[in-house]
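Entry for the shared binder. Reason: the reviewer on the internal report wants the predicted structure included alongside the sequence.
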Amino acid sequence: MADISQADGKTVSDKIEPLAAGPRRYALGLLLVIYVLNFLDRQVVNILAEPIKLDLGLADWQLGALTGLAFALFYTVLGLPIARLAEKANRVSIISIAAGFWSICTVACGLAGNFVQLLIARIGVGVGEAGCTPPAHSLISDYTPPEKRSSAIAFYSMGIPLGSLAGMALGGIIADSFGWRAAFFIAGAPGLILAVLAWITLPEPRKSVKKVETTAHPTVMDAVRELASKPAFIWMSLGAAINAMVSYGHIAFYGSFYLRNHSEGLQSLADFFNGFLGTELGAIGFTGLALGLLIGIFGAIGTFAGGQFADRYVHKDARAYAAIPALAGIAGFVPFLVAMLSGSTLLSLGALAIVTCLNSVWYGPVFASAQSLVKPRTRATASAVILFVINLIGLGLGPLAAGVISDIFAVQHGPAEGLRYSLVTIGVVGLLALPAFWLASLTLRKDVEV
């Protein structure tokens, strides 16, 4: 890594040695657990959508706003200034404070008495979670050598499916037994403990770097010019945003989709499950458990595999950063149609498992490409920018669009079929990610920095 020149002619080395294997495993493990809680608190509302809808008298567009737009607007807007702070401040402190804040706001969701109160609490969750991933990606890039970066970031990104698993499964089971409000209380509490643990035990590698009196940091315009000079970064961000729009739009309504379209099949599976294990899960509890396990296990497999493939092939050809998610997207389209259109609950869930695995492959290659396309002191900003695009388009528009389209189709086809047609429509739009990844591949080999 090159030295950074300063205006006064001095230089400061930003060479940071990766952590030793043991401390690196601990740091990556703790960051993964924090990210699991991040997504648990973000996604638990999805399995609670139907009881919240009935209790507070909400429309599908309001559910879409709660699960997507309310969270995404503040998450994306605040991500950039927090990332700029992370370029020079203590990244561990930022992550710890953010984890504590979003956990408190998750608990506040359980206290909401109407749509506006729940909306404000969800906005708070988005504000807190904006301080997690940009500094975490920057830390991980310092913790690990470049040749292991894709798998390390993919390991961290396993927090997405694992957090979704915990949110769907625990949220559904707790809601079955104690109501949707208790699910928010229990989801938020562990984050407060993790915030303290991270503050005390996570290393900040910058503390060990010997610096001159005045350290040079790239300005906002420096970072913008660097990112804008990399066409591959722009197209990778757009492809990832389209993938995220599909993923977030679908996962926000999977629980509602199966409860509306497969109620009899789910009840039969729940009865068999309860009879076999002696449990007493209701429809919501079983649906949350089934979807949580499916999304968590197969999503984690796909995420891990994507990172491993990237580390294996990127050093041979950087275009693998784009080729891997593109091929996974092509392979997953037909199983997706089967999952949405099949009348068999078992066949639908089985196809959804394949879709979930393939649709999770992109995390490691995309986020690792963002870290490899820029210089070290711009990594947190690069992560924030790609998250800005991903979440504004994906999380902000995906669930809201799915809810609006569902309400439109429901006028003629009813709420069950209306939601089915909505999810299929969003899935077809997701094919637009393929040309974006192809355009990224045209300049990836030239644009990669490290």
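Summary line for the report: The longest helix spans residues 379-429.
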